Structure formats: structure tokens, C-alpha cells
Amino acid sequence: LTITTSPASIAGQTYDFVVIGSGPGGLTVASRLSEIPSLRVLVIEAGLDQRNNSLVTDPGNSGSAFLGPGLSKLFFSAPQNDIGRQLFIVWGQTLGGSSSINGMQWGRGAKEQYDAWETLGNTGWNWSNLSSYMKKSERFQRPNAQQTSAGFTFDASAHGFSGSVSAGEPNPLLGTGLQFEYQDTVKNATRTRLPTRIDFSSGSVNGAGLFQYAIQPSPNASTLDNRRTSAADAYVYPFLTTRPNLTILTGYTATRMTFTTSGNSAPKATGVEFIPTAGGDTLSVKVAKEVIVAAGAIGSAAFLELSGIGNKTVLQAAGVQTVVDLPSVGTNLQDQFFNNFEFEPASSAPYIPPAANMPPFVSTSFLTLAQIVGNSTAGSLGKSLTGSVESRAKDAVAKGRFSSVNGLKKMLRVQADLVVKQNVPVMEFLGGPASFDQIPATNTWSVTPTLLQPSSRGSTHITSSNPLDPPTVDFNLLSDPFDVSLFISSMRFARRIASTPPMSTRITPGGETIPSLAVVPSNATDAEWMDYILANYLTAAHPVGTIPMLPCDMGGAVDEKLKVYGVQNVRVVDASIIPIQISAHPQATVYGIGEKAADLIKADL
Ligand SMILES: Cc1cc2nc3c(=O)[nH]c(=O)nc-3n(C[C@H](O)[C@H](O)[C@H](O)COP(=O)(O)OP(=O)(O)OC[C@H]3O[C@@H](n4cnc5c(N)ncnc54)[C@H](O)[C@@H]3O)c2cc1C
Fold it and tell me: Where do the H-state alpha helices sit in 163-306?
């Protein structure tokens, strides 16, 4: 295996597979394809190999994404929500992609949500099948004696133990007593029989439990040598002295594919062009079999558009010649978003300072609509969610946020069923005796409501043919009335959590520091809450859906083999293909998509 910043021996060569981007999608599929010695595989990654950078390796730095130039790509969205606010857009621009800088949270969505992908027309994409691939990617670390005595439980049937991505809990596991208190608090606040200590990889995610992490636990608790597991740790570094057929070029940005067309057959990708990420001359390689686009949900849509695959009006405006008019590319964008509450600890509350090489001490909980708003409001909200599918679909398509009214109607109906009939969790309430974002580290208790499965749809498109110009990203979150009602109710519910025992006994009465009762009083109206939310919410940096896997006549951009419609030999293997958002942090799912894609490609060889 070669990892190099020098294109000298690469430019002009022919590779069977050229993979664009080295996140969980790209590296999983590249590594699995390179198991076949006769295949020559090239990965082109815009960022650099940062394997010795403690901002990557140290789990204590897992909130550092925003601090590290050279580690992440950072720019601003289009002005949002009619108030002109621009949101951060961030992804890991380094070997391993966002898995090298993310929060490391490890878990899967609700079973029913993956089954819904199949209901949408993607044969073979269901919980049973995809969870087997998610397990294949996983090397779950069984708890040691200290972790067991700290209360770490897990569902063995939910995990894989011999895969590539090491996952589990840090060693030692600290602060669990207070975290279990947080879980009990959420249970008390919902007034339901909410399960606690649940395993968020099990497909049954309604409940509260400890965060699990993509982590390599310290071999010896006294050294506190916990390390992040990135996609590079899992799928590249173990093969440094083997796999001569796998080459990774870092520091270069792929700018477009070139195609040939013969007769009536669909265009065929024959080459990939790339430039130094810092700017410079264009180089190219030839492609013998396929291009695999894995540049993340924003980067992959931009790369397809730069290559002439996308909505021809968008392409024309950007000065790019159309190869395939595929209008859904860059639409259907669904991120998750959150707002943070912080509380001053009571003087009697124990404080566990963040330790080096330790992720933050937080627990999480995933709640259904009824658990947050109560049965009767859930009934009326659910009714209007289901009843407004057609008008919402028409409105979003008219505004360019999807390409097919019928396709979006089906997606929104499926999403409404998941919320109303199947009771999948709609919100995450992360919290406990630490802030999720521990920089700067302070003694604080937090509750962070996060909307998991937006009904709102956004879009992302290139605006010029210059590959170094960032695309426009219009998240368009909180445009759907259901998302607005749900999020406002969830902000009120976060306060309810904080005023419920046992957490209420751990914080100073009236000690809410963010947003604070002075800024949002306890009797705030919906409009007052909304003003605060719009000025303060942040995206979770979990974008999906921009190159949706759906039947073509429903507005899909890739088929169930992840092949881009209208061209012969281009697949997309990353978070872009997820048609509807899941109730989870996405990386474990993207690793599963990479594993499944590798098998689909091998079967086609
Ligand atoms: C700050 C942050 C925190 C997160 N926290 C969590 C978490 O705790 N748990 C979780 O499950 N998920 C988390 N995520 C999300 C998760 O990391 C992503 O969903 C996942 O990494 C997506 O994988 P991917 O392969 O689709 O894309 P990415 O991981 O984004 O990888 C895409 C790669 O492509 C490269 N690239 C882009 N364009 C080009 C180009 N033109 N040429 C060459 N290379 C290119 C990028 O540099 C990048 O390396 C977080 C993400 C961020 C940004």
C-alpha cells in the first residue's frame, strides 16, 4: 500500500477503480476491493494523512473539528430561515474524512428506518441485510472488569467482533453513576416506561443509554491511552506493508470525470482529473473499470455536477457542459440540528474534570413524538404531518429541493408512518455532567435536543466550474411546520428534563446559563422560542441524501447497486445515498454502506 503526496508515479496511469474521497464510505470500499490482488485501486483524497496529529488521535479532542485548519474543510451556508444567518459547514478534510475529526459516537438507526429504504424501492436495503454489513465492519470491544463494574452493559447480538472498526467505551470508564442519573431523569421526564442502559446499535433505539464510541480503548487504564478509530485506522493502516495494489494520493482534489460515448450507449467514465488542493495544474488518471464517488454528502454532489451530471439548468448556470441531466443531484439534503442548554452544577454536585484521551462524559436518549409532547398533541401533530404530505411535497419540489413530486410524496409518507405509526424516535436528548462540546472544558451540566429525522429538505449545488469554489449549501432546516412544532416542544422538554429529579438535584435552581431564563423566560411563546432557535441552532454535520438511492422515476440519482443513472460505470458510496435520515449519528451506517457496496461491486466483476 502506498500513501503519497506525490502524483509523479500516478498521473497518466490506469487504475481499475478510482475512489474519490477517503471517509468511511471511500476507504471501506477501496480497502475491500484491494483484497483482490489483480485490481489496481487508487484513492484521491483532498486532505493529508494526519495519523500522528493528536487533534485526530486523542478522543479528548473530538470537538476540535472547528479548530484545525488542514484537518477540516470549513465554510458557510447560504443565508438561512429568512434571517440571513449563515451556518457552519464542516467536514474532515484529511485521510479518514470526517471519521478522523468527528465526535466518534457509534450507533445505528431504528430497524424500521432501514426497512423503509426497501419500501422506497431499494430491493435488498433493509435492516436485516444492512445490519449484517454494519456488523461486518465492526470490532466491538467487550468490557473489561473496570468497565463492567462501572455498569457498562451491551447487547452482544447487536455487534460484530471481528471487523475493522474498533468500537466500545474508553478505558477506564468514568462518571457512569452520574450518567445513569441522567438516563433515569429522562425516563422520569417522559412519564413512560422508557428503557435505560440500552444499546444504540441494536436497531431498537427508543430509550436512554451510554454513548458508545469508535475508539480503541487504552490497553492499560493507567496510561489513559485511548485512541480514536478513524476509517484510516480501520481500513488502511493495518495494510501498510501489504496490498501493493492500493495507492492513496493525499493533498489532491478530484475536479471532474471525463467520459466517452459510443453510439447509443450511455456515457462511460474513462478518466479522473485532479489538482493540488492548494491550487495548481490539472493532472489525470485513466479508469479501466469504475469511478467510485465518496466525497461526502456535499462533496460528492459537487463532484458529480462538476463532471456534468446533475440538473442541466444548474450546470448551465455554472458553465459546466451537461453529460447527463439528472435533476435530483444536490437535492433532498437532510441534516440533523441541535440547540444546547447548559446548567450550573449545584455546589454539592461531584465534578469529573475532562481527562486527556477521554471523550466527553455524556449519555444520550432517543425519544418518540408522544414521549415529548404527550399522546394527545402527538395525535394532532401526527394527523397534520400525514395530511399535509402532498402540499409539502409540491412546495419543496417547486422550490428546487427535490425533483419529483411523486417521489417526495412517497418519502414524506414513509417518514410520517415511521413517526406516527411505528413510533421511531424523532429527537435525541444528549446530556449529563459535561457539555457535549468540551472546548473550553468547564464544570457544567448540559441537555442538547437534536432533531433526528427532518421533514424539511435542502439543497447543495455548484455555482461555478472552478472546483475550488465551495458549493452553495442551503440546509433549509426548520422550513417544515412539523419540524418547527417538534423542535419548539423539544426545547421546552429540555427544560423539563433539567427540572426533573435526579438531575434537578444536581444543578443550581434557576441556574440555566444557556439560553438562560433572562433570554428565554419560562412562559416564552412559540414565537419567542423560535426567535431564539433560529439565532442559535447549529447543524450536527450529519448531512445525507443529496444523491438519493431511489428508483429513477421517483427522482433517484443512484440505483440499488449504487450506480449513477444515465452513465455506465460510476457509483456513489457514502452518506449521499441515504434517501431519508436515520435516528442515529451516521458513521456506523456509512461503514455498512461501504461494506455492502464492496460486495455489490465484487459480484459484478
Ligand atoms: C464535526 C463532525 C462531528 C461528527 N460526529 C459524528 C459522530 O459523533 N458520530 C457519527 O456517527 N457521525 C459523526 N459525524 C458524521 C460522520 O463523520 C459522517 O457521516 C461520515 O464520516 C460520512 O462519511 P462519508 O464517507 O460520507 O464522508 P466523509 O467522512 O465526509 O469523507 C469525505 C472525504 O472526501 C474528501 N473529499 C471531498 N471532496 C473531494 C474531492 N473533490 N477530491 C478528493 N477528496 C475529496 C474529503 O476531504 C473527505 O476526506 C460527524 C461529522 C462531523 C463533520
Answer: 176-190, 231-235, 296-306
Give residue 437's pLDDT band: very low, low, confident or very high (50, 70, 90). Answer: low
Average per-residue pLDDT for the chain: 95
Average pLDDT of the segment spanning 334-357: 86
Q: Which fold would CATH assign to domain 54-151+167-237+333-604?
A: Glucose Oxidase; domain 3 (3.30.560)
ipTM (interface predicted TM): 0.99
Q: Dig out the grid coordinates for 349 from the structure.
A: 454536585
Give the residue, by CA position, lying nearest to ligand 1 atom 16.
587
To the question of pTM greater than 0.95 for the whole model, the response is yes
**Does 518 score more than 50 pLDDT?**
yes
Ligand 1 atom, smallest distance to 93 CA: 47
Contact 227, 23 (CB under 8 A): no
Residue 290 is inside which H or E element, if any?
strand 283-293
Ligand 1 near 44 CB (within 6 A): yes
Does an H or E element contain 291, and which? Answer: strand 283-293
pLDDT tens figures, 73-83: 989 999 998 88
The residues carrying an active-site annotation are: 542, 585
Least confident of 20-24, 61-65, 339-343, 558-562: 61-65
Pocket of ligand 1 contains residue 20 by CB under 6 Å: yes
Atom of ligand 1 nearest to the CA of 575: 26
Check residue 604 and give its pLDDT.
97
pLDDT tens digits, 154-186: 999 999 999 999 999 999 998 899 999 999 999
Q: Hey, whose CA ends up nearest to atom 18 of ligand 1?
A: 587
Query: Is 70 exceeded by the pLDDT of residue 67?
Result: no
Q: Are 460 and 301 in contact (CB under 8 A)?
A: yes
Pick the atom of ligand 1 nearest to 107's CA: 11
Residues 95 and 30 sit within 8 Å (Cβ to Cβ): no
Element of type H or E holding 429: strand 427-432
Going by alpha carbons, the residue nearest to atom 49 of ligand 1 is 97
Would you list which residues are annotated within the binding site for FAD? 586-587
Among protein residues, the one with the nearest Cα to ligand 1's atom 53 is: 91
Supply the pLDDT for residue 439. Answer: 45
Contact yes or no for 293/303 (Cβ under 8 A): yes
Q: Is the CB of 45 under 6 A from ligand 1?
A: yes
The vertex-100 CA angle with 94 and 101, nearest 5°, equals: 100
Is residue 413 within 8 Å of 337, Cβ to Cβ?
Answer: no
Of 56, 65, 122, 120, give the one whose Cα is nearest residue 90: 65
**pLDDT higher than 90, residue 221:** no
Q: Which ligand 1 atom is at minimum distance from the Cα of 27?
A: 25
CA separation for the pair 562, 33 (Å, rounded):
15
Cα angle for residues 387, 392, 395 (degrees, 5° grid): 150
For 188, half-sphere exposure in the C-beta direction (CA atoms, 13 angstrom radius) is: 15
What is the band of 440 on the pLDDT scale with cuts at 50, 70, 90? very low
d(CA 174, CA 532): 34
Task: Check if 587 has its Cβ closer than 6 Å to any atom of ligand 1.
Answer: yes
Q: Flag whether pLDDT at 442 surpasses 70.
A: no
Nearest to 248 by CA among 3, 23, 18: 3
Q: How far is the CA of 520 from the centre of ligand 1 (A)?
A: 34
Ligand 1 close to Cβ of residue 250 (< 6 A) = no
Answer whether residue 441 shows pLDDT above 70.
no
